[in-house]
Amino acid sequence: HAKRDGHGGFRLFEPAMHADVLARLELRTDLQRAIDEGELELHYQPVVRLVDRTTTGFEALMRWRHPERGLVSPADFIPIAEETGLIIPMGRWALHEATTHLRALGSLYRMNVNLSAKQLQDPGLVHDVREAIVGIDPGRLTLELTESIVMEDTDHAVAQLTALKALGVRLALDDFGTGYSSLGYLSRLPVDVLKLDRTFLACDEPNLIAAVISLGQALALDVVAEGIEEEAQWRTLRDLGCHYGQGFLFSKPLTAEDSLAAIA
Ligand code: C2E
Ligand code: MG
Ligand code: MG
Ligand code: MG
Complex ipTM, two decimals? Predict the structure, then answer.
């Protein structure tokens, strides 16, 4: 079939496009089942202190163990979860699951949980977090947010973040450097941690990396580098005074069981 493309011309619908729409619809139905049937899992990537490479905590990363598709990565289902609002129950589950695992890891470790913008709009979020951290030092939980979170509804978002901070949990700005209003937002947001996106490492420009680490230090933030894959990157970051890091050099995300074995 041919369709107007909005520029006065015509373009052909490719069969692949149709298949994609069907796949998304199927995914949406599947995702509800995934929640109901317990097909979601959290994997845990170690966060290490760069001076000595000891594990200080973990980042919880969602996976979907699909009966036919196998292990599905978040890039393939988080966007649909956000569109459909299913991210709210999924995020609530993740908070509960990750903090339960944090109790099993013991009081020496921290846990990071990713939040989506949709969750920050949820009036029940603060209540959910308060419930999740019962019996845990709240400072051991860090909630990771991206800049896009605050671009949508800044006042409400900042109010929610302030309420979360009042619980004593820490906040991290994730994927720092991929957005475009970084510096302005940084001063407005009550964040404790700056997570440098791995594209910083890939850019291979030590002066730029040094400047961003200094920025974090000047604002008294913990700085975490994402996506460290090579020994040389580790040494550079360590020498520049970057506090923490994550990456395949140290460890891939681990199953809950393997994360317990890794610290045993
Ligand atoms: P993120 O929070 O920035 O997580 C870091 C991503 O980088 C993870 O991908 C991790 O597996 C990957 N990674 C870690 N070390 C390396 C490395 O050395 N090299 C490379 N190339 N990649 C590395 P993952 O698990 O596929 O997650 C992708 C994104 O999905 C996350 O990015 C986060 O934005 C989102 N996500 C994951 N779990 C959740 C969740 O529970 N809730 C929400 N809202 N979002 C989540
Ligand atoms: Mg993250
Ligand atoms: Mg990140
Ligand atoms: Mg990232």
Answer: 0.98
